[in-house]
Amino acid sequence: MSDTFFSGAPHWTWLIILYFFVGGIAGGASLLAAVVDWFGGPEDRPVVRTGYNVAAVGAIVSGALLTVDLGRPLRFWHMLFQSANFPAIMFKGWSPISFGAWGILLFGLFAVLAALGGMAEEGRLHNPALRAVGGVVRGGLAKLVGGVTGLLGVFIAGYTGVLLSVTNRPIWADGPWLGALFAASAVSTGAAALILLAPRRGASEQSLARLSAFDTKALVLELLLLVLFLASLGSVNRVWVGVWGVVLLVGVVGLGILAPLRLHLQRRPVASAARLVLLGGFLLRLATIFASEGIGHYRVTAGM
Amino acid sequence: MIMPEAMGFFTDTTVCIGCKACEVACKEWNQLPAENGGVRELSGDSYDNTRKLDGIHWRHVRFIEQFKGPYDGRWLMMSDVCKHCVQAGCLEVCPTGAIIRTQFDTVVIQSDVCNGCRACIAACPFGVIDINPVSGTAQKCTLCYDRLQVGLEPACSKACPTDSIQFGTIAELRTRAEKRVAQLKSQGVDAQLYGADPKGPLGGLNSFYLLVDKPEVYGLPRHPELPTANLAKSGGLSVASAAVLGLLAIVGLRKRRMDEQSRGGTGNV
Known about the structure:
The complex is a heterodimer.
Chain A: H1 14-39, H2 45-69, H3 96-122, H4 128-136, H5 139-165, H6 178-197, H7 205-233, H8 243-265, H9 270-293, H10 297-301
Helix pairs in contact in A: 1-2, 1-5, 1-6, 1-9, 2-3, 2-6, 3-4, 3-5, 5-6, 6-7, 6-9, 7-8, 8-9
Chain B: E1 7-12, H1 21-30, E2 60-69, E3 72-80, H2 89-93, E4 99-101, E5 107-109, H3 119-123, E6 130-132, E7 137-139, H4 145-149, H5 155-159, E8 165-169, H6 170-186, E9 192-194, E10 207-211, H7 231-262
């Protein structure tokens, strides 16, 4: 029996699963927006602007979900500053939950700046203060802000899996692949969100086709990483015998990866594949969290 | 100021009688609330009805009922508690700095700093910590930090009627524990210490045990590890995955744009 079976479940449930999902989409979308911002053309601007908006909204929702999930939400700032020694910084470079808190804060700041820049570009900002901020973020500065948002976004995409690995819990700490898997899933769901949302901002068929082609590759990588993740678990895989194993196999692999891959290859309309990718991304986090959360310490030791 | 010596518990499970006086003393001294509004739910499959350590049970007497038949078996009992690890996983990951190491080399959660993120619960290899629903913060044994500071011994060891829980300096407790193991071995009992070795896992445990069966039987991991043991590998693979995804996006996009340009498309890099 793995030593991880003797630890206790941290009660990270629905709010954390939603955060992992929303944060992943935001991180993935911001990476793609930044790449298209730097290497795309003028016709790709709707994708870029949508990406930064998804990143900004996702970062704000993520912060709210994490704060509400705390046992003492009003003490959320204790993760950023030393409560007894304010304003000294609270930061542990070896604790993912500590550097993750700073990551989300910075990601949110840069994503909001990038989104305001994009909205100013479209002339959609009516509030004078926001218009002033958005007006500053243009040209070279906009590219720089976008690039930093993308880098922070890809960090957000992957660190959540690392956070789970840096515990003593079954599944999460039994193999090293969860961060890599979550990163691939996050970028793939980010692409799916852009495919669904960018047409409303005037994205061209060409832009969407490029995103769809990228998503195909991301899904193949995700499948490969999922296989490596499961292979690394060894005998711990017995915990998948049950409802969460079915969710992983049918929901994540079947509906979330293989079905959209088939739709991509058949060149069907990209939106239906994107919806399945989003469903798969959510179910991946749901199954990974709940399969481990359900293993209680006392049940195991009591042989129940 | 003279620093006090490292203090801790040596729990000799062979003399535990399962009276749970330690659990009661702990609850009384630390004013821990009753579970389920005081309405006790029986476990139904064991004489142990408190079952586990959590945010409102900082001591728990584990009953291991090894019975093959009505006249063939034995009881093992172990008063379990926070191990006050020399290298503590909870302290390592705590993002608020709420978990500290005291002058007695014990590990304490400051309830006024903790914000209830629960990272420490998942980090503890022993399943010791949980949320106290009254405070909304993570809580566990403090090794009676308040009592230690005024020269009193912890409430549980004070209450223990058989001295199964012994409190003292780690150096003295280790000597005592080794003598007890030798005594039991001379009587033919297969006794072993768990967590007494400073060169062992987690740098040794400041609450260590004398066991007469495998650690797993008592609900103890054989090789407890720090959670950050996974950080470098998991982080490295995550960065590699992110780099591959970034490159796929850049290369894919440029290639497609070049293809489109060569076909006379609208791209204009």
